[in-house]
Design goal:
Organism: Ovis aries
Distance between the termini: 30 Å
Radius of gyration: 24 Å
Low-confidence stretches: 6-28, 559-565, 573-618
Number of helices: 20
Number of strands: 24
Structural class: alpha+beta
Protein name: Pyridine nucleotide-disulphide oxidoreductase domain 2
Strand order of the largest sheet: 7-6-17-18-19-16-20-24
Helix content: 25-40%
Length: 618
């Protein structure tokens, strides 16, 4: 603690205001009046889209309304000396081909893989000097079984089979998430020859069926049934079931007993980092370093990135096709195509002139389910949490469990259900579901010596409180205090270690990062808003009803990865490009992480520095 105090004083003395990270602004010279393509929003998805377009010769500009790039994948020094992944905080779903093709390692991307990766401490009365039990999971299956056997020997034997079962389903679904869905509207309008060519888009479905084989009915149940039902068929111990169930509800206004929640169980095995399937890790320097690496790759090839340049409107010609954008300062920038990294709601309800969109389409966009349960709390502390179930060393050095996703209030799936029911009544959960991560346990660049940054993804918190009340500072702090009280029960002394905190309720996440309803996926990942129907039926292929306008954010399919056909860009008649040799099947792959992109008015979140006053998640 003394070490942290000295380090913090040095940090405060050297940095009176946040200066660690500066936005990339006008990296390729002055704003030009015309580009081949414009990308709205410099979130990670938009940056990847821009990087690939530029690599294929499409002169591309990116406009970001905030002072910093990255959207929700951003690092901000909101408390002097402490660098937070303010929204998105873990990396797993970055496609390997993007990592290699954009040479992100060359452009500074460094990862800290986590092993072990999950820690669930119990609240139990100590007896005979024994510490409470805990569940620690990692890549060593034998050790996992030993941990699970504390609660159920039967579950310990079943766990390897469960993991193999889920791995196989993830392997089958992976090609679907990496491929554009069949465009049913276009299929009805094109010639027979073009229809035959489009049948190739069904190949991932055929591949998935071949992988799943005779077990298809069992796998169908995973995708459609409640997560609790799926887990009950495999396991009997509540700590294991509740820990796994967090993957089914994280970031979603749902609970393990609602049909369809089983699909999101796949998230913990879908990822791939450095060739390791299912791996999740921290980015050196915070999630903003990932966005910086993508931006560095993009600008090396000629992409122009402009920060604090808000797109106010998409321009449309009298002939009904996109011809550029108008910025908030009145500047007009012409382009033949516009890719929006903003949410479908912002793109089509705010930026696009409504007269150019079908009424039915607009109505469907307006009806998208964007409910979110997430309040993100970023915390600066002067020492590591000391869990009763895994006491710290005398020197307070990080232990293996400190690098994990630490699940609190997860002893029983019923606790998760009760927390969800509170939110349905318009109340923040009495015992919130808490995912606690300490990236500074592996990345010492994020905090002064001896100090740490903690990411708390908490749920459930409604967007609007009971009685139609909006969140205010008092309610925001009262909820954070409740979260801190919960952590204190597992790790006494936690509240006394807090130096400062930043509280982002669903309305804050919407205001700061442009996440509609605070939803980290832009719209819910429910069965009626996936694949053919994401964001709405007949418009799942990234093209909008307005010619030349495309989606490239997480509100389009796939929810975790998506592609934009460069062949479609060719059809919008971007000139002076030699497409013939590589456009027949080439695509831009765009990863989506937890959470989404931003393109709304920039406002501060609920930042509160800590003096003598005591205040209190994917």
């Amino acid at each position: 603690m003394a070490t942290c105090g000295r380090g913090l004083r040095r940090a405060l003395g050297a940095s009176p205001c946040p200066t660690w990270r500066r936005a990339l602004s006008d990296t390729r010279g002055r704003l030009k009046p015309e580009y081949d393509a414009v990308v709205v929003g410099a979130g990670h998805n938009g940056l990847v889209a821009a990087a690939y377009l530029q690599r294929f010769g499409v002169n591309t500009a990116v406009f970001e309304r905030r002072h910093v790039i990255g959207g929700a994948a951003v690092t901000e020094e909101i408390i002097p000396g402490f660098k937070f992944s303010r929204a998105s905080y873990l990396l797993s779903l970055l496609r390997p081909q993007i990592y290699s093709e954009l040479e992100l390692k060359k452009h500074g991307l460094r990862l800290h893989l986590r092993n072990p990766y999950s820690f669930t401490p119990m609240l139990e009365e100590s007896a005979g000097g024994k510490v409470p039990r805990s569940l620690l999971l990692g890549t060593d299956m034998a050790e996992n079984q030993k941990q699970i056997a504390q609660f159920s020997r039967k579950d310990a034997q079943a766990f390897p089979k469960y993991e193999a079962f889920m791995d196989r389903l993830a392997l089958a679904i992976d090609p679907l998430l990496d491929s554009a869905p069949v465009d049913l509207e276009a299929f009805q309008q094109v010639s027979l020859l073009q229809r035959l060519k489009m049948l190739s888009t069904l190949k991932p479905l055929w591949q998935a069926g071949c992988i799943l084989g005779a077990q298809l009915p069992q796998y169908h149940q995973v995708l459609t049934a409640p997560a609790a039902k799926v887990l009950d068929q495999w396991f009997e111990s509540e700590p294991l079931k509740a820990t796994l169930a967090t993957d089914a509800v994280i970031g979603a206004m749902t609970d393990p007993y609602i049909p369809g929640s089983g699909y999101v169980l796949l998230h913990h095995v879908m990822g791939n980092l450095e060739g390791i399937r299912g791996a999740w890790g921290y980015v050196q320097g915070g999630m903003g370093a990932l966005s910086d690496a993508i931006a560095s790759s993009a600008t090396t090839h000629g992409v122009s990135i402009f920060t604090e340049k808000t797109v106010a409107k998409v321009q449309v010609s009298s002939g009904g096709r996109v011809q550029g954008v108008i910025l908030q300062d009145g500047s007009e920038v012409r382009s033949k195509v516009v890719l929006s990294n903003a949410s479908p709601q912002i793109t089509f309800l705010k930026l696009t002139p409504q007269e150019w969109l079908p009424e039915e389409f607009v109505a469907r966009i307006a009806q998208l389910d964007t409910k979110s349960p997430v309040t993100k709390i970023n915390v600066a502390v002067n020492r590591l949490p000391d869990f009763l179930a895994a006491p710290n060393t005398p020197r307070g050095q990080p232990l293996p469990h400190h690098q994990c996703s630490i699940h609190l209030n997860c002893e029983d799936t019923l606790l998760v259900h009760q927390a969800f029911e509170d939110a349905l009544d318009g109340l923040p959960s009495k015992r919130p579901l808490i995912e606690l991560c300490i990236p500074s346990s592996l990345d010492t660049t994020l905090a002064p010596p001896g100090c740490h940054v903690i990411s708390l993804l908490t749920q459930y918190t409604p967007y609007t409180l009971a009685g139609g009340k909006a969140w205010d500072e008092q309610q925001r702090n009262a909820y954070a205090d409740r979260v801190f009280d919960c952590i204190e029960a597992y790790a006494p002394g936690f509240k006394g270690s807090v130096v400062g905190r930043d509280i982002l309720t669903p309305p804050d996440l919407e205001r700061v990062f442009g996440l509609p309803g605070g939803n980290i996926f832009h719209c819910a990942m429910s069965l009626d808003q996936l694949y053919f129907a994401r964001p709405v039926p007949l418009h799942s292929g990234y093209r909008s009803p307005l010619q030349g306008l495309y989606l490239c954010g997480s509100g389009a399919h796939p929810a975790q990865r998506q592609r934009i056909c460069l062949q479609e860009i060719q059809e919008t008649q971007v000139q002076s490009l030699d497409w013939d040799n590589h456009l027949e099947s080439e695509m831009v792959t765009i990863p989506v992480f937890l959470p989404g992109k931003s393109h709304e008015q920039r406002e501060p979140g609920g930042l509160q520095s800590m003096g003598s006053q005591k205040v209190g998640h994917n």
